[in-house]
Amino acid sequence: MNSDPNCIFCKIVRGEIPAKKVHEDADVLAFHDVRPQAPVHFLIIPKEHVPTLYDAGMKQHLALGKMLALVGELARKEGAADGFRTIVNTGRVGHQEVYHVHMHVLGGPEPLGPMLVRRK
Ligand code: DGP
After folding, report:
1. Is the pTM of this model over 0.90?
2. What is the pLDDT of residues 51-74, one digit of tens each?
3. 35 ligand 1 Cβ < 6 A
4. What separation in angstroms does the CA of 27 have from each of 41, 77, 110, 112?
5. Which among 50, 97, 99 is the best mutation to test ligand 1's pocket, defined by most ligand atoms within 8 Å of the CB?
6. How far apart are CA 42 and CA 9, in angstroms?
7. d(CA 97, CA 114)
8. Residue pLDDT, tens place only, 9-20
9. With a 6 A CB cut-off, is 97 part of the ligand 1 pocket?
10. Is 61 a catalytic residue?
């Protein structure tokens, strides 16, 4: 499985940086976002280092499928019981900050505001 020694999310996968984990199995890891933008905000990542969705392909279909297959259960467990939003930022235009594929999961008790675009 590809791992990048300098990637911050690979460091979380390897246990070198602490994170508040929501779920872990052989293929994916979910953990709280360090800068939450909603009462519930966690990330689901493939454990393998895949920089962006441009770099993903059928080799990653198990991990990428698991991310969607698990998200409802994990969101509910984290307190997003009445809906949530998933976002995968990709590349410069998508305002991707961390170049390891990750799915944001955002929710809370009240409907979310517009957050498809993060203005810096
Ligand atoms: P983006 O690449 O723009 O989709 O967002 C990256 C997210 O990753 C951002 O919301 C903050 C989060 N993040 C960055 N570094 C860390 C970290 O070391 N730990 C955790 N838990 N989250 C991080």
Report:
1. yes
2. 999 999 999 999 999 999 999 999
3. yes
4. 20, 20, 32, 29
5. 97
6. 13
7. 19
8. 999 999 999 999
9. yes
10. no
